[in-house]
Structure formats: structure tokens, C-alpha cells
Amino acid sequence: xxxxxxFIVNPISGHHDKSKFPSIVEELIDKDKYDYTITLxxxxxxxxxxxxxxIDNEYDIIVAVGGDGTIxxxxxxxxxxxxxxxIVPYGSGNGLARHLHLPLKPKxxxxxxxxxxxxxxxxxxxxxxxxxxxxxxxGFDAIIADYFAKDPNRGLKTYVKLVTEKYFKFKPxxxxxxxxxxxxxxxEPLFISFAxxxxxxxxxxxxxxxxxxxxxxxxxxxxxxNLLAVPYVAERLLTQRIDKTHxxxxxxxxxxxxxxxxxxxxxxxGEAVMMSKDVVVEINPLSLNILLPTDxx
Length: 297
Prior knowledge:
The chain has 297 residues and is of the alpha+beta class.
């Protein structure tokens, strides 16, 4: 029996031209294995709607074709479903795709992952009930996520520009963390990340050894470096060695309570979401079926 596979394409994400994508699929997909359909998103939230329809219509594999926003929209809609999620990365950051060691070229994804890949299960998480796949956080990165969402320009240059503009005026707030109802931490960090996968995107690894299938979140408490240390910290982030510095403390937990001074934005997989003063972050073990390269089970 052939499997039914749906490609959900965001035609405008990542500023990459996807006009040739249908012809790539037609040329390379294994037609003995799949009956395929391609559909385009037309507005924000449409990818989630199309995913729900695909689940109702008994598709077997649902593929997000776009940037991190599209990928997150499709994936979070599929949590707990029997269907298998797959990624064709067309974004600028491609954080989840990089963590999973997926090819970043669409042709290779079709031939190496869609045609020959293996099905696996990964953890997902929630912050105050809002689901996410890779990383959520509070503090400075949540503020940057808000500004980044409002900026018409995407990509690493825009992100660096915003960080540079906002960094020196940012005053850390006080947080009280309770990990698995046992360990308690008081801190005034630059930001705190609750990492399911290892990176924000652009190869910036916030927790280099985070795992998507260990049933735990990496709680990364980042201290604010002084001006002279910023290039050093940035280099360590981009070379996956930030955990070797004294600027971050990494703890592991399946449930984290965050008590803070006021309601504020949180960063949920790159999207700025307003959250109440107190926040609960929880892991949802092995809750998403995903298609991976054969060497990355």
C-alpha cells in the first residue's frame, strides 16, 4: 500500500523561491512508495488548519516546507497524532532541521529523508499549555523575538542588529525557578532557555548536548556578559561550546515552575507570546512522530 503524503508549502517564508519545489517533488519522489499532494498556505495560521484537515483525511506523512514558523505550526498541530511529521527547511535559521542533521537542500531532503528515511519519536514541550518543539525562553531573547517579529527584514543580520541595539539598555529581572518540585534557583539572568533541541538556529547552540528524546528539558540560565566578553560568548554559541564557559548554568528537569516579577513576553520557538507572571514549562515525552535520515534515529 502506498502512503499518502502532503507537502504544506509556505510560499513566502524565508524569502527563498519555492516555485520550483513542485517540479523537484515530481522528479525525485518515490512514486512506488507515495501518493503525494502539494498545497500552499495563504495566511498566518493556515498551515495549522491544513494540518488538521490532513489528519482528518488520513494522510500518513505531513511535510512542512518553509521556515521555523511554518515548521512549528505544523509540528505542534501534530503532537499526539498517529501521522508522521517531516521537514523541508527553507528558512533562515532552520534550528530544528540543523539539530536533526537534516539536509538543508530540498533535493537531498526528498531523496535522502522522504524516500529513504526512518520513522522515530521525539519529545515536545509546553509553556503554560502553549506547545513547542525546540526552545522556549524568558528574558532578553523573548524581547528580541518580539522586535524580530515586527521587523520586515529577516535573517541573521537583522537578529544581530536588534541584539546590538537592545543589549546595553536591558536590565535583568529576578526569577525563582523550581525544578521538578525539588531544586530551587534564584537568579537575575540575561535570559533563561528551556531547551528541548540544542539551538535557536543559525547554528547558535544554546545547549549543545540537549536531546529530543531523553524526556528532559535543558534549563539554561545565561548570565549577562560585559561588553568585552560579548564576542567571546557569541563565538562559543556559534561553535557549540557555550556550555564550556561560566556564562551559562545548565540544569535538567521535566517540569519547571518560573516565578517572576511581572507578566511579560516569552519566546516560544522564535515567536513572542505574552505570558502571565508565573510560568510552568513541561516536557511531553515521545509525543511527535518524525521522519529522520537513516543515520539519525
